[in-house]
Amino acid sequence: MRFFCLYSSDIMIIITSRRGNSVGNKIQDNDSINELGKIIKTTKVLNPILKLLNIDSGIDINKITKEYADLLTLNDDFNMYYHDRGWIAHESLNIDVLKFCVSTAKAGDIDRGEETLIEYYEGELKNFEKYSYRKHFYDRQELLNLAIEDYFSGRYHSSIPIALLSADGIINDIEPTGLFARETDLEVWDSISGHGSGLKSLVSLLSKNRKKTSTDSISLPYRNGILHGRDINYYNKFVAIKSFALLIYLADWIRENDVKSSF
């Protein structure tokens, strides 16, 4: 059983959904999101009847309908604009940050959105201990703390490889093939981070073959190019924070995968 919530100043709707048979083409096609839409439509039909019976449901259905419509495509829009820059939507991503980044991208200022993401994930790094409740992160916490210290000291050359190696090792604890292997199944039913347009697609991008040694600056944490010594000029803030963001995506993915495994 899976829970999905929509928060409103008037009401919090909580619904449950059972595992489906496939992953939709878009995140908005996820079963839990579709079921919530059906509940809102049903409530919209019932509300006038309740009013005729002098029953106050306490639900501002028009407001909730608008909020649902506004939120419906946010994750897909975010991935459309930011995926190729190394960012993906995920379960714990702050909703206000998500909205702001999508709105600025639509306005043609995606660089401003990316600056906001850097600030957001730097804030997450300052509180990274909250992820250590998971054994996969707890075992690596001391090393990751050193890498985070290196990040804030501008030592990107050392923090980036540690973040990438940790990401690979964490998934290797769960999937024997590791994070960057083609045969590793990263799709999770009814998930944001585990959607085909999320972690799976991002890892494919970061696993791109880097066959020639290059001294050009890069903005994506290409795993093979960095760890195999091909992308020599890799050590910058963009690559570093995106390497750490990958770990946060994994934390959400692990939680979603655990839900899947419980069925």
Automatic annotation (TrEMBL):
It comes from the Bacteria. This is Uncharacterized protein.
